[in-house]
């Protein structure tokens, strides 16, 4: 039977990609499947936590006992995340948020012109996890992810400090047998006082290990 030692703990998790509209029929997005975030939600709920899962568009079913909030864009995820974060003990940002959105979403479908090139102006999206970690009050214990293709640990350590996170989980997405879209992953978890490698395993197993590690650090 599942360990139920997280009762009373409120955990908010973001998962999946965001979708940034260009016009009524087109968008900019990425290859995030949402599997890691959903695995974390499943693990946390199975251990007795009260879980809110804020998800971009994914093809996954909601784990049992989890409250799911569906969003499309980074701005929508930002709003939902901040509302949930101030009522949470732990916030885990697992979503692959689009760094930029289209400056002005066209009201009508853009038509193909005579020109060989066209340009879109993009503007920066809010950094959701940095906003959560910067909350002056009701700031949850904040855990981020860093998907990198090179200098994985170095970039992750920088993000831990720059975004003022409590913990960051670094994964190498250059290998096709883990990370994006894969059922397996491997993580290096870093906090201010140390780090721990969680070797390649199915995302569901890693999720249980990670939720256990996070809840231990939250308590200290
Ligand atoms: O800077 P980078 O996108 O690599 O940081 C990844 C971490 O930051 C992840 O935890 C991701 O969910 C979070 N993030 C965010 N809002 C953004 C960009 C990233 O919450 N706009």
UniProtKB/TrEMBL annotation:
Q: In which pathway does it act?
A: Cofactor biosynthesis; coenzyme A biosynthesis; CoA from (R)-pantothenate: step 2/5; Cofactor biosynthesis; coenzyme A biosynthesis; CoA from (R)-pantothenate: step 3/5
Residues in domain DNA/pantothenate metabolism flavoprotein C-terminal? 6-216
Q: What is its EC number?
A: 4.1.1.36, 6.3.2.5
Q: Does the keyword Ligase apply?
A: yes
Provide the Gene Ontology terms for cellular component. phosphopantothenoylcysteine decarboxylase complex
Q: Where is this region: Phosphopantothenate--cysteine ligase?
A: 11-220
Which cofactor does this sequence's record say it needs? Mg(2+); FMN
Q: Which GO terms describe its biological process?
A: coenzyme A biosynthetic process; pantothenate catabolic process
What is the superkingdom listed in this entry's lineage? Bacteria
Q: Which residues bind CTP?
A: 93-95, 99, 109, 126-129, 145, 159, 163
Q: How is the cofactor bound?
A: Binds 1 FMN per subunit.
GO MF term list: FMN binding; metal ion binding; phosphopantothenate--cysteine ligase activity; phosphopantothenoylcysteine decarboxylase activity
**The reaction(s) this protein catalyses:** (R)-4'-phosphopantothenate + L-cysteine + CTP = N-[(R)-4-phosphopantothenoyl]-L-cysteine + CMP + diphosphate + H(+); N-[(R)-4-phosphopantothenoyl]-L-cysteine + H(+) = (R)-4'-phosphopantetheine + CO2
Function summary: Catalyzes two sequential steps in the biosynthesis of coenzyme A. In the first step cysteine is conjugated to 4'-phosphopantothenate to form 4-phosphopantothenoylcysteine. In the second step the latter compound is decarboxylated to form 4'-phosphopantotheine.
**Into which family does the record put it?**
In the C-terminal section; belongs to the PPC synthetase family.
Designated name of the protein: Coenzyme A biosynthesis bifunctional protein CoaBC
Origin organism is: Alishewanella jeotgali KCTC 22429
Q: Which gene encodes it?
A: coaBC
The range of the complete sequence contained here reads 182 to 401 of 401
